[in-house]
Design a protein that fits this description.
By secondary structure, this protein is of the alpha+beta class. The chain has 2 domains: 114 residues, Phosphorylase Kinase, domain 1 (2-Layer Sandwich), CATH 3.30.200.20; 204 residues, Orthogonal Bundle (Transferase(Phosphotransferase), domain 1), CATH 1.10.510. The protein contains 15 helices and 12 strands. The strands form 4 sheets. Strands 1-5-6-4-3-2 form a 6-stranded mixed beta sheet, with helices on both faces. A two-stranded antiparallel ribbon has the order 7-10. Strands 8-9 form a two-stranded antiparallel sheet. β5 and β6 form a beta hairpin. α12 packs antiparallel against α13. The longest helix has 21 residues. It is globular, with a radius of gyration of 21 Å. It starts with a helix and ends in a 19-residue tail after the last helix. It comes from Rosa chinensis (China rose). Keywords: ATP-binding, Kinase, Magnesium, Membrane, Metal-binding, Nucleotide-binding, Serine/threonine-protein kinase, Signal, Transferase, Transmembrane, Transmembrane helix. It is a single-pass type I membrane protein.
Length: 374
């Protein structure tokens, strides 16, 4: 009965249709996961959020895993659960979190992932972890890895995949501080000739949500590009995507704040101290201009993730080979059309109740794994 209620029949249909890579997804028995998590002991909790609770577990073969116990309250969340299984079973990329399997025999369905020990990128950006500061080279590498994974999802997966909730809390760091993109509950795979996805409800997170998608309900690959642009600005500035410490004139959303600062030639006033200390002004300006292009309010004018990846790889190469003083005076800001900044935080106040869009209202929601590790 629980198997049926938890989407077992729906998952079986997906399995038989060939949409799920059966070899990659294991159906765990409930007793296996209860044993691995010491009966979901509170001491094993890695993190809690709107989607459920994540526990640290150890399988019988000694593998350390993360077990997400879903907080299912309606059928839409159940479909997100099944959707994540289907999507992740199709993905094979070093910078995407690996789904090992699921369990449908329990009161609520369970997902089993590889364990990612070093928590979220957000933790390192905003809390400035003292024993492991994010260097400029690390920030460039992390940005390049995220971009490469998104490029893979858009162009190299068996079907194009839109993530639809890219944010720094959904970027995890493994034992070698390599990135892993997580949380594919609202992701969608589309037909190769399809250019957009029309949704009845807007899904996403304030501060990262593409304004064009917010207004049209049409999600495109360029909507992921916008969200990536916000993460890139986070890496540049060390600031949160939404901050009520900033005035409305400055921009409550980081995207607006960044665009206004660029327009006023105040970039170096908002760049993180670690970045200023270690990065060349030339490269900082190049990355900032790339971020501004990603945040263009016109999706067609944003670069593709393939183009973003290529540009970041070039910057990484110049960082490795550059030596001596830079001639900063030769560097100019790229002149792009400045559209009226669209501040999601302030604009959403009049429409939030009408939207009732789940994740959109929960930008404090924690991701798959928290920073805490045992």
């Amino acid at each position: 009965m629980l198997f049926k209620r938890n989407g077992g029949l729906l998952l079986e249909q997906q399995l038989s249709s060939g949409e799920v890579n059966v070899e990659k997804i294991k159906l765990f028995k409930s007793h296996e996961l209860e044993k691995s998590t010491d009966n979901f002991n509170m001491d094993r909790i890695l993190g809690q959020g709107g989607q459920g609770t994540v526990y640290k577990g150890m399988l019988e073969d000694g593998r350390i895993v993360a077990v997400k116990k879903s907080k299912i309250v309606d059928e839409s969340q159940l479909s997100e659960f099944i959707n994540e299984v289907v999507i992740l079973s199709q993905i094979n990329h070093r910078n995407v979190v690996q789904l090992l399997g699921c369990c449908l025999e329990t009161e609520v369905p369970l997902l089993v992932y590889e364990f990612i020990p070093n928590g979220t990128l957000s933790k390192y950006i905003t809390e400035q972890v003292e024993d492991f500061p994010l260097t400029w080279k690390m920030r460039l590498r992390i940005a390049t890895e995220i971009a490469g994974a998104l490029s893979y999802l858009h162009y190299a997966a068996s079907f194009p995949i839109y993530h639809r909730d890219i944010k720094s809390t959904n970027i995890l760091l493994d034992d070698k501080y390599r990135t892993k993109i997580a949380d594919f509950g609202t992701s969608r795979s589309i037909a190769i000739d399809q250019t957009h996805l029309t949704t009845s409800l807007v899904h996403g997170t304030f501060g990262y949500l593409d304004p064009e998608y917010f207004q049209s309900s049409q999600f495109t690959e360029k909507s992921d590009v916008y969200s990536f642009g916000v993460v890139l600005v986070e890496l540049l500035t060390g600031q949160k995507p939404i901050s009520f410490l900033r005035s409305e004139d400055e921009g409550r959303s980081l995207a607006t704040y960044f665009i206004i600062s660029m327009h006023k030639d105040r970039l170096f006033e908002i760049v993180d101290a670690q970045v200023l200390k270690e990065g060349s002004k030339e490269d900082i300006i190049i990355v900032a201009n790339l971020a501004r292009r990603c945040l263009n309010l016109n999706g067609r004018k944003r670069p593709t993730m393939r183009e973003v990846t290529s540009e970041l790889e070039v910057i990484q190469m110049t960082e490795k080979t550059s030596s001596g003083e830079q001639n900063y005076e030769e560097v100019e800001f790229v002149k792009t059309e400045l559209v009226e900044p669209w501040d999601i935080a302030s604009s959403s106040t009049g429409t939030g109740s009408a939207l009732d869009v789940g994740r959109v209202s929960s930008f404090h929601e924690i991701p798959l794994l928290s920073f805490k590790s045992r």
